[in-house]
Amino acid sequence: MRRTLLIIFIFFIVLKTYGMNLDDVLLPALQEDIDVLKNENDKKVNQWELFEAKKAAFPSVSLEFENQTFDDTNVAFTATPQFKQTPELKLNLFAPIYTDGSLSQNIIYKRKQGELLKLSLELTKEQLKHDIIQQYLDVLAKSRKFDISKEILNNAEALLNIYENVFELGKITKLELLNARK
Description:
Elements: H1 2-18, H2 22-32, H3 34-56, E1 60-71, E2 83-94, H4 102-168, H5 174-181
Antiparallel strand pairs: 1-2
Keywords: Cell outer membrane, Membrane, Transmembrane, Transmembrane beta strand
Subcellular location: Cell outer membrane
Main location: membrane
């Protein structure tokens, strides 16, 4: 409780000193909140997963080239080496023939997951906005109460000065002056 009051007090001082408004508080919070950043990162990951799922439905081609060199000399250490090269070129085509609908289901799943992540991001942002606006309004209310309390204190001090002056003139008793100091 004390920590919360201290944070509110510090926020109140900053608010009074720099005259911050709600946008000055809300925008940095939305940009730097860890939950918002995590949801945005999850959304990017989902976009890559959706791309990979779509890519798996199409045929893929791979091309490999290999050039092997080896010594073809029959007698060791007597003749000059006879090197031979065997170039090799491989072309592979992979195409999904029958997947029992798993590829299309995976694409649909990734799309739905992306929509869910988008809604989750919006929910997180709205909850954060709600919390910040609530705290901002609490600070404004406490600020107003503080201003009113300060005004009441100034009025009470002025009234006490009046009572002291009236006491010095002998118009009221010491007991009435002590009651006024309470």
